Amino acid sequence: MARQTPDTEEGVPSPVTEAEMEAVITRLQSKKRAPGPDGVHGRVLAIALGHLGDSLRELFDRCLRSGQFPEAWKEGRLCLLPKARRTPDSVSAVRPVVLLNEAGKALEKIVASRLVQHLEEGSGPGLSESQFGFRDLGV
Predict the structure, then answer these.
(1) Boundaries of domain holding 54
(2) How does DSSP assign the chain, residue by residue?
(3) What is the pLDDT of residues 60-83, one digit of tens each?
(4) What domain count does the chain have?
(5) Within a domain: 97
């Protein structure tokens, strides 16, 4: 996961790049989803990142260096969505969906992207052609 640069030690993740933050902002702007437990919509966070981007990037960097994920980002809000043509009293009549905070999802996306990059381009074992989960297929 750690990319080697002259000022990066072995095993220490490189800082979050501008390109990674731009990808986060693009993802936040393009999604129309309900907010997580913090109540912050993705589009609102994308606008705020214009002013707070460096602070959030520093927080992401600290999370990566320390190996810690903020507790508040681990919390979710469970929503039960009714399924069509099911009897309402059946357990299978609802689809459970957990809404998570956008900031936590942004950090998870950065980590997932780095893992896939490591496996595909780095010294990792590579990904099977039949592996589709967590892979950006450009679709």
Answers:
(1) 18-75+102-121
(2) -PPP-TT--TTPPPPPPHHHHHHHHHHHHH------TT---HHHHHHHHHHHHHHHHHHHHHHHHHT---GGGG-EEEEEEEPTTS-TTSGGGEEEEEEE-HHHHHHHHHHHHHHHHHHHHSSS----TT--TT-----
(3) 999 999 999 999 999 999 999 999
(4) 1
(5) no
